[in-house]
Design brief:
Two copies of one chain form a homodimer. Chain A is mainly alpha-helical. In chain A, 75% of the residues lie in helices and 0% in strands. In chain A, helix 1 crosses helix 2 (22-29) and helix 6 runs antiparallel to helix 10 (161-175). The first copy, chain A, binds a DNA duplex (18 and 18 nucleotides) through helix 3.
DNA sequence: GTCTATACATTGATAGAC
DNA sequence: GTCTATCAATGTATAGAC
């Protein structure tokens, strides 16, 4: 069960969901094809199980009440480093999640859940940038989210860990600065 | 020929490359399956043709010599607005290109070409941020690229054009500011 | 619980008629 | 140039033995 989902996630992340067959998953997990259908009704059900299981981990990671007591700079640092930890704990999962954004047909049910992930930090960040004096905190929050997603996008293709962590620190530094004009 | 590539690109972008069959492409293009193999040796060859044809448009869009005469703010504005125009001229193509980043196996030959696309602006931007006084212009250029890619990533899932253009202007405004500490 | 065997649809691709 | 017919291979999924 656990071994199957792990194998499937790895394959989905590397080869893409549609491009991965049941036979490949079974082979990688070291079980027979038939056994898969004892646990899941089909390939889509297996995908759903993977997503659902991993979804919980992110939710309780960023506690809104906890963050509200922090300073702006601290909050940004916690969110960036938290995202980094979350990613490093299971890179394949996040890659899979992002790749699904390009599969309009496959599982419309998951789409809202995936979109929510991106907006997870959005609501949290607006008051932060208000505090920092930004005249358009919503746009600044979106810019922050876009920068984060962009860095993660790089990490999927380029495999330089160093470079990755450096950019995370650069983001913390950049976005923690209070607004300043001229 | 043109109609086939157009239909294929649309399907690839919306359903994903692996999830699109030759039959679906032929049907969408209004031709028979067999005809496809008269123009292309296979599905991968069709993909290659699509990518190659569209690649040229981006290359001569950003002329390095031309940009070197511009001010920092002007260059940023040109690159952002140019990217926006390029995207709006053929959104499906850019979505397809990005989605291929998640297909490690499919067409390793295209991988470097796709990666280059992301770095297109990277080399151009470093001297810009030097001019603007940034102590780490490389990181700032990467942040700029990440922010751009992140915004495009949003546009693939959310379909709000307005919101999209607003963020592009916000990026121009934000990144055109000279470096300032405290 | 797990595997083998098999059914059935769809896939990419080819051959040959028009 | 274009289509129909057809191929072998692979896909998902099921049934039944152990």
């Amino acid at each position: 069960m656990e071994i199957i989902e792990q194998a499937a996630m790895e394959l989905f992340a590397h080869k893409g969901y549609s491009n991965t067959s049941i036979a490949q998953i079974a082979s990688a997990a070291g079980v027979s094809k038939g056994l898969l259908y004892n646990y899941y009704t089909g390939k889509d059900d297996l995908l759903k199980a993977i997503i659902n299981k991993a979804m919980g981990s992110a939710d309780h990671f960023f506690n809104e009440d906890f963050l509200s007591q922090m300073s702006a700079a601290e909050t940004i640092s916690i969110i960036v480093n938290g995202s980094l930890e979350l990613y490093k704990a299971n890179p394949a999962y996040w890659k899979l999640l992002t790749s699904l954004m390009f599969q309009e047909e496959v599982l419309k049910e998951l789409q809202p859940m995936i979109a929510q992930k991106s907006q997870m930090s959005y609501g949290l960040m607006i008051p932060i940038f208000e505090k920092l004096g930004y005249p358009d905190p919503k746009s600044q929050a979106l810019l922050f989210g876009a920068a984060m997603d962009g860095i993660f996008l790089y990490s999927f293709s380029v495999q330089e860990e160093n470079h990755f962590e450096h950019m995370m620190n650069y983001i913390i530094e950049t976005f923690s600065k209070p607004y300043h004009n001229e």
